[in-house]
């Protein structure tokens, strides 16, 4: 299996269909559930990225992908997506292969 993990608290990683309409729907959904607002308590720290933290919680920060016969075992339309919801600093992703 392969673990793919965002190394930042305002990023998310998920597996889903690689269809443009769905990607736009996911963006809209995240913005509806966690819009930018000035009144997040987190902003009292001087940061202004409270929405980015909430969006990361919604899509999570890591996925595990099965490996079969040395190949990633995706469904027919599955792809791994990375999203950075804050976008201000360089980011990292860690990929660890385990087994086989």
Topology:
Layout lengths: L1 E5 L4 E7 L2 H14 L16 H10 L2 E4 L1 E2 L2 E2 L5 E7 L8 E5 L3
Antiparallel strand pairs: 1-3, 1-7, 2-6, 4-5
Task: Characterise this structure.
This protein is of the alpha+beta class. The chain has one domain: YjbQ-like (Jelly Rolls), CATH 2.60.120.460. The protein has two helices and seven strands, in the order ββααβββββ. The chain has helices spanning 20-33, 50-59, and strands at 2-6, 11-17, 62-65, 67-68, 71-72, 78-84, 93-97. Strands 3-1-7 form a three-stranded antiparallel β-sheet, with no helix packed on it. β4 (67-68) and β5 form a beta hairpin. It is flat, with a radius of gyration of 15 Å. The mean pLDDT is 94.
Radius of gyration: 15 Å
**Proportion of residues in β-strands:** 25-35%
* Gross CATH architecture: Sandwich
**Strand order within the widest sheet?**
3-1-7
The helix/strand class is alpha+beta
- Weakly predicted, low-confidence segments: none
The biggest sheet, with number of strands, parallel, antiparallel or mixed sense and barrel status, is:
3 strands, antiparallel
Q: Which fold name is given in CATH as the topology?
A: Jelly Rolls
Domain count, please report it. 1
């Amino acid at each position: 299996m392969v673990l793919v993990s965002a190394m930042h608290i305002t990023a998310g990683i998920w597996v889903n269909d690689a269809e443009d309409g769905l990607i736009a729907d996911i963006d809209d959904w995240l913005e509806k559930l966690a819009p930018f607002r000035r009144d997040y308590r987190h902003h009292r720290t001087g940061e202004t990225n409270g929405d980015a933290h909430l969006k990361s919680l919604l899509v999570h920060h890591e996925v595990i992908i099965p490996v079969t016969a040395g190949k990633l075992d995706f469904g027919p339309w599955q792809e791994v997506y990375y999203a950075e919801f804050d976008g201000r600093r360089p980011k990292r992703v860690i990929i660890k292969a385990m087994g086989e």
